Every structure is written in C-alpha cells, then in structure tokens.
Amino acid sequence: MTENPRTLVVWLIACALMVAAMMLIGAVTRLTESGLSMVEWRPLIGALPPLSTPEWERVFDLYRKTSEYRLENAGMLLSEFKTIFWWEFIHRLWGRLIGVAFGVPLIWFLWRGYISPRLRLHLLALFVLGAAQGGIGWWMVKSGFVDRHDVSQYRLTVHLSMAFLILGYMLWLIAGILTETNAGSRTPDWFRHSLSALLIVVFATVMSGGLVAGLGAGFDYNTWPLIAGAWVPNGVFDTVPFWRAAFEDILTVQFNHRMFAYATVTSVLCLCGFGYRTAHSRWQRMILLLFAGMALAQFALGVATLLSVVAIPLAVMHQAGAILLFSTATLARHAFRRGE
C-alpha cells in the first residue's frame, strides 16, 4: 500500500483541532481555578466521573485536604466543588480522547501501510510527545498540593510549551503533506532565517504569557500603555538575584510580556511587509497577511484582557489568539522553507 495523503491530512487536521480545543479547555480550567480539584491521577479508571453521592463525598474530602481548599476555598459546598471538578474532569477526559483519536488510527494506518517510513518516525514521535504531555500535566498539578494555592508557574509554562510544540509539529507535517513542491527555494536565506527567528520570538512571547498566567500577574497593573505609572516602572528586576525576577516577580513578568508583545508585533509587521512584496506564490502572500493580521489582533486582545482585569471570555479569546498566532507563524515559516 502507498501513503494516502488525503486521509492522513483529514486525520491530522482533526487531531490538531482537538489539541487546540484542549488548550482552550485548559485555559478555562486555569481561569476558573479548577485545576487542583482532582487530587488523584488514575489514567484508566479515572476516565469515569463520580457516579454516586458517596463517591462525590470521597473526592470532595480529598480536595478538602489540599492547601488550595484551606487557603482559598474553606467552607466550599459540595455543589460549588462540582463546578470546578467538572472543568478539570473535562480537561483530562479530552486529553484521553486525543490519545485515542491519534493512537487508534495511527495503528490502523501503520498496519495498512498508508504511511511512508519517513512520516512514520514523525508520527511515532508525536505519539510519544502526547504521552509525555499527560505526565507533565500531572507533574504540574502535583506542584499545587503543597503549601500554596496554585500550581508552579514553571511547570505550567512547561506544560503550555509542550502543547504548542505538539500543535506546531502537527501543522508542519500537515503542510508538508499538502505541499509537495514549494517556491521557498527562491527565497533569500536571510528572509528564511528571519522567519525562523520570528517563530522563536512568537514562542517566547507565548511562554512569557504562561508565566503571567502562572503567577496571576494579569490581575495587577491593569493600565496601558503605562505600567505602574511609567513605561519602565520602578522596581522592575529588583529581585535578588535579579534574573529570578523574570520568572517570579509579578511586575517584572508582566513588563517582560509587554516587551515581548511589542517586539513581536513590530517584527511581524516589518517582515511580512517585506515578504509580501517578494513572495512567489498566492499561498505565501496569504499566510503572511494572516500572520500580520493575527499579530495585531492578538495584541489588541492582550490589551483588552489586561484592562478588563482578566475577564474570562477575553482571556480565553487571548489564548485562542496565541494559538492562531503561533499557527500562522509556523505555517509562514513552512511556506518559505528551503526546497528539497
């Protein structure tokens, strides 16, 4: 049997959409402070929710022993607990569904010989990354079961990073299957390298947003364009040692995220403007326009989310914007890849 491009593309697009949806569910789970409601990690039997009152009481009792309950939610009723429990349950269940949606067809395609040897290695690597992401998620959750009421911002950012890497990997493979030939070989090397650097900048901006989310830094300094009354506020990078401020100080973390956002928007608009005039195909011009448009939209969503003091609908839209911005950055880089 030979590779069946259409079937593979439909399957991979469906899986990529599921990954993107998982990231949005994760955003809601974080914003509603639901992530620590499930104290147990049971990969198999954990796919079922509590089915009786005694079981609900049991899982609620486990939650009442956590530091989050003691520090934030003391006196919470069972009905209130169920609300946060369901978001975390849906988040974990969706992760299991992604594993099934990716793993079962992969086995079928391998058995039928629909996948070329080169693509086979990439798909197996994706499966391993997906399995690792499940473990990283539990590793992140466990950090919140100590004397704190949230998870580690470091572990949350690692979890978020892995999600974006998996999505980007999928998109790159999809684009590779769909475009057998490309005009990228006629693109100047410096432009191609600039797109690679810009993809890294976009990724770094998203990860700095992970630190903002992990520290709850978006709930402070809710003014724009000034932060704490200045462009460069007093106290930024004041932590000793200073480098820890970039990861642990709320003022510095939010300031850094703003600076990354400014750098991203400026770089995207300049590079896309040049690339549009020198593009060799309709797809290249289209993806550059989408890239520039998403950079502007995401910047506006970020400002709106900040000024709203992280209103959940806007914050979820901001997460969706990050997904779309990173996706267009990945596809733009692929569109100008070197010809094989």
- Write down the overall geometry: flat
N-to-C CA distance: 25 Å
For the biggest sheet, the summary is:
none
Output the number of helix runs.
11
- Any idea what the radius of gyration is? 22 Å
Q: Extract low-pLDDT stretches.
A: none
Order of helices and strands: HHHHHHHHHHH
Number of spatially distinct domains:
2
Which labels suit this protein?
single chain, 2 domains, 11 helices, 71% helix
Produce a short descriptive summary.
With 340 residues, the chain is an all-alpha fold.
Mind explaining what this structure looks like?
With 340 residues, this protein is an all-alpha fold. The protein has two domains: 1-178, no CATH class; 183-340, no CATH class. It is built from eleven helices and no strands. The chain has helices spanning 5-31, 53-64, 67-71, 78-112, 117-142, 153-178, 189-215, 245-248, 250-278, 282-307, 312-335. α1 packs antiparallel against α4 (78-112). The radius of gyration is 22 Å and the shape is flat. It starts with a helix and ends in a 5-residue tail after the last helix. The model has no long low-confidence stretch (mean pLDDT 91).
